[in-house]
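For consistency, the fold was encoded as tokens, which produced the following:
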Amino acid sequence: MLIYGLQKLTLLDYPGETAATVFLNGCDFRCPYCHNSHLLSGDCEPLMDEEELFSFLDRRKGLLDAVVVSGGEPCLNRGLKDLICGIKDRGFKVKLDTNGNHPEELKSLIEQGLLDYVAMDIKNSLPKYGLTIGIQDIDTTGIRESVSLLLQGKCDYEFRTTVVKGLHELEDFTLIGKWIEGAKRYFLQQFVQRDSVPDRDLQSPDKEELDTYLREVRKYVPNAELRGLS
């Protein structure tokens, strides 16, 4: 398994835990607002292999509590289970970031007790999913299955939506709220334009817009919160 990025310390990516974040290559979505667009095609140069990562983690025992496995989309990588096993064997908790399009892989990892926390992106309301992820004819069956799986509560989890001006409207959050009603955690994250974002014309919603969306979502998910305001 090759590693394409490593954030050696984060206090934000795993709620309540001191963590490192590992970035894997490749993704089956093409979101125009992606901050990690260099990882999408699978063509970028790796940073290290998994043995080098394990060596790093061995030196961080007692300093880190957890490892976040992110991307790209980690579930596309055939060696994901072995990578997670290697992390768990070293005594670290594991959080998986996923777009939810691979429910069988997600279910298998949860049932084997290999995940301590899952963060799944809810890209938009289902009618606008294709527009938001850059794949117009997307079949959302897998995404819906992953949402249903996480709502069963067999693994700690959160849902999150990166809110982009022009891509998201109030009606979308009514539909999302009904879709994930009763979810344990749901975060609305403010999109921030960066050099790595494919569509340079996209804009951030303001605080007033986000507050409006949050009030709507809380009708269905009372624990919903805003995160990452600039």
Notes: Strands lie at 2-3, 5-10, 19-23, 48-49, 66-70, 93-98, 117-121, 156-163, 186-190, 225-227. The longest strand covers residues 156-163.
